[in-house]
Amino acid sequence: MMRLAAGRPVPAPYTARLPDADNQPGHSMEPSAITRSSAFLQSNDEGSATSFRWLLGQSKTLTLPEQIAAHVGDRILNSAIEPGEWIREQDLADEFAVSRSPVREAMRLLEKEGIVRIHPRRGAQATQLSLKEIEDLQEVRQALVRVVARRVAAHPSPELVAILEAGVAQLAPLAEDPAGGDAFGETLSRLTLCCAAHSGNDRLFTLITSLSLQMSRYTRLGLRSVERRKRSLALWRKSLQAIRKGDADEAERLWGVRLDENSREIRRLLQDSGTV
After folding, report:
1. Which residues pair with 125 in a beta bridge?
2. What is the mean pLDDT of residues 152-169?
3. Residues paired with 126 in a beta bridge
4. Residue 22 has pLDDT above 70, yes or no
5. CA 92: distance to chain centroid?
6. What is the crossing angle of helices 248-273 and 226-245, to 10°?
7. 86 — phi, psi (to 5°)?
8. CA 24, 30, 34 angle in degrees (round to 5)?
9. Which range in 144-148, 158-162, 198-202 is most confidently predicted, on average pLDDT?
10. Does residue 103 contact residue 92 with C-beta atoms inside 8 Å?
11. Is 47 left (phi over 0), alpha (psi -120 to 50) or beta?
12. Which helix (DSSP H) or strand (DSSP E) does residue 30 occupy?
């Protein structure tokens, strides 16, 4: 039985090695988001995929429903809860030793992020996307991520460059590891979120955070093979060079190429598997 308490700091790894915010002039994103992005990439603590996205732009404490949502969200992203699987509120209430009220609120949070659908009188169900829905999400995400690439390359900050260098260094061994696909994909997603946090556009950051959660499972799918990860790493290295030089056109182009290639691979794998 897992016990969580409302109003208390989220247990490790959710807050591990997250320093207090420092002033970071020149960014509209709140300082804590900038500092936390750096903290993650300079540690080996992967933590929770769901809570990372929420903590990056918030305080260091998640509410009780958010803690439950983070645990359940991770299970969905990791396919421990399969697409289309029903999620029983009472089972979660028993597991976390809470009433059904915070569990119900947790499901609403996950529905807001697009990874759960709530059906009246039936309960919550892990989202199962059609191929068209996946491609629609990819199209929107690609357009937004290209904006991020252009914005961060137009005014590259030394801190962001350091974060990207640390991230690319973490990607190198994962690209070669046959079992490194999930960790590689999650690191890429977090790198993108760190860039969005440095873009100076809060709304852009919020949109990309939500899309990142919805697309996480499929992003990892497209990076399952060592060959695909090596190619993605090569494009990230070139993108980093473009950002260092302040070449916004080249950074945007390279991010577009990388995302297009991953989208094609996701489509191929889903069609071959017949799962959509």
Report:
1. 86, 117
2. 92
3. 116
4. no
5. 24
6. 160
7. -80, 145
8. 60
9. 144-148
10. yes
11. left
12. none
Per-residue exposure over 170-201, b if at least 16 CB sit within 10 Å of its own CB, e if not: bbeebbeeeebbbbbbbbbbbbbbbbbbbbbb
Token pair, residue 84, equals 């289309």
| Cβ contact 251:239 at 8 Å | yes
Residues 6+ apart with CB under 8 A from 78: 49, 182
Q: Where do the domains of the chain lie, and which CATH numbers do they carry? A: 44-126 (1.10.10.10), 131-273 (1.20.120.530)
pLDDT digits (tens, 9 = 90+) for 35-47: 555 555 544 344 5
What's the order of all strands across the beta sheet hosting 86-87? 86-87, 123-126, 116-119
- pLDDT greater than 90 at residue 6: no
Residue found by looking up tokens 């990860």 in the block: 229
User: What are the tokens at 115?
Assistant: 């990874």
pTM greater than 0.85 = no
Tokens 């949109």 belong to 207
Provide the token pair at 130. Answer: 């059609």
Q: What is the dihedral of CA 214, 236, 39, 33, to 10 degrees?
A: -50
